[in-house]
Write a structure and sequence with these properties.
By secondary structure, this protein is of the alpha/beta class. 21% of the residues lie in helices and 31% in strands.
Length: 158
């Protein structure tokens, strides 16, 4: 399948799920999808298009927690980035991708721990990076983070 066929297929199959489509370059596309559609779209990209899951990243954008899931269709060197915005006014949760790809396990744990996203269906959302004494609802990569340990010297990250 070539790039044009993949783009057409994704737009046709998921027209009700796509919020925005940005054709960045010949090698890269961004697709913003509804949160409830992420698992369905990611499954298609991973299983049907045989794309490799690279990584996911998260950021607090004031109103939302935004997650980008990056996939590569290696045969044609196409990077597909799926974007989802999770409004902070609601419960910040999304379906886990671990049931379809084990490679999402640790990165979902990291995003959960640092940004507070609940990945529904994740088999093991235990701590990965932060110490055991870290407060339960304190997320260090959130804009509203307040230092909880008055004796901490945090000049080298979390």
């Amino acid at each position: 399948m070539n790039r044009e066929q993949i783009v057409k297929e994704l737009k046709d199959l998921f027209k009700e799920d796509i919020v925005d489509f940005f054709d960045k370059s010949e090698k890269r596309i961004y697709i913003e999808v509804k949160p409830e559609s992420m698992l369905k779209v990611a499954t298609h990209i991973f299983k049907t298009l045989k794309a490799r899951f690279n990584i996911a990243s998260g950021i607090d954008t004031r109103l939302d927690i935004e997650i980008l899931y990056h996939f590569t269709v290696e045969d044609i060197n196409l990077l597909i980035s799926l974007r989802v915005k999770l409004p902070k006014k609601k419960s910040i949760e999304i379906d886990s991708l671990t049931p379809i790809m084990k490679g999402a396990d640790w990165v979902e744990r990291e995003i959960h721990e640092l940004l507070g996203v609940k990945f529904t269906g994740h088999p093991n959302l235990k701590r990965l990076l932060l110490p055991d004494e870290w407060p339960k609802d304190s997320y260090p990569l959130r804009r509203d983070y307040k230092e909880w340990d008055k004796g901490a010297i945090r000049d080298r990250g979390v």
